[in-house]
C-alpha cells in the first residue's frame, strides 16, 4: 500500500512540476512584439536598419554617386554601442549593408574596416610558400579598396516619467566618401519605450 502511495505521489509531483515550470517554446518573430522589453530586441534592430536603408537609398546624394551602373565599394568602419546593454552592433551594420547590396548599387568589402575577413590574409600568405601550388594562389592587385564607409552610434537615454521610466534609443548612422571625407548621407532613427521602473534597462 505504501509503495502505491509513494508511486502516486511521485507521479503527481512530476505532473505538477511539468505543469508549473513548463519548457522553452519557440516564438514566431512576426508575433514576438507581444514579448517586448525595455531593451533593444530583434524588432528594434530591424526597424532601425529598414528605416535607415530607405532613407539612404532615397537620398539625392546617394542616387547621384550610384549613377552610371557602377557599384560603389562600402566598408563598415564600426558602430559604437553607447547604451547600457550588450549589443552586437554587427547585426545592425550587416543588415544595412545587405540591403544596400540587394539594391544593386553597392558591394561590401571585408578587406578593410572594423571587422575584416581573416581568410583574405590567410589566402595571400600562401604566396611564395613552397607548400602551395603557386598557380593556384591569388596574385597581387586584386583587392578592391573601399570608396565609402558606413559608421554609426547607438545612444540610450533613460528619463523618469511619473511612476514610470522612458527609454529613448537613437541610431545615428553616416555614410562617408573616403576620397574627400565628405558626408554622403546621415540619418537618425529614434525608438522610444515606456515601462515600469522595474523593467527599465540600465
UniProtKB/TrEMBL annotation:
NCBIfam families: lp. It comes from the Bacteria. This is Penicillin-binding protein activator LpoB. Keywords: Signal. Residues 1-18 form the signal peptide. InterPro entries: LpoB. Pfam families: LpoB (PF13036).
Amino acid at each position: 500500500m505504501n509503495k502505491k502511495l509513494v508511486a502516486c505521489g511521485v507521479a503527481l509531483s512530476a505532473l505538477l512540476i511539468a505543469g508549473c515550470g513548463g519548457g522553452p517554446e519557440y516564438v514566431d518573430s512576426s508575433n514576438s512584439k507581444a514579448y517586448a522589453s525595455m531593451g533593444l530586441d530583434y524588432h528594434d534592430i530591424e526597424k532601425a536598419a529598414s528605416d535607415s536603408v530607405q532613407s539612404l537609398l532615397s537620398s539625392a546624394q546617394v542616387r547621384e554617386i550610384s549613377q552610371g551602373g557602377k557599384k560603389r565599394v562600402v566598408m563598415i568602419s564600426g558602430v559604437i554601442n553607447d547604451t547600457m546593454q550588450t549589443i552586437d552592433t554587427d547585426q545592425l551594420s550587416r543588415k544595412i549593408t545587405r540591403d544596400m547590396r540587394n539594391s544593386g548599387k553597392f558591394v561590401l568589402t571585408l578587406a578593410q574596416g572594423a571587422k575584416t575577413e581573416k581568410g583574405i590574409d590567410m589566402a595571400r600568405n600562401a604566396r611564395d610558400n613552397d607548400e602551395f601550388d603557386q598557380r593556384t594562389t591569388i596574385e597581387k592587385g586584386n583587392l578592391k579598396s573601399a570608396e565609402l564607409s558606413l559608421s554609426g552610434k547607438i545612444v540610450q537615454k533613460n528619463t523618469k516619467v511619473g511612476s514610470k521610466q522612458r527609454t529613448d534609443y537613437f541610431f545615428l548612422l553616416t555614410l562617408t566618401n573616403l576620397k574627400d571625407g565628405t558626408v554622403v548621407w546621415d540619418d537618425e532613427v529614434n525608438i522610444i519605450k515606456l515601462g515600469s521602473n522595474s523593467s527599465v534597462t540600465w
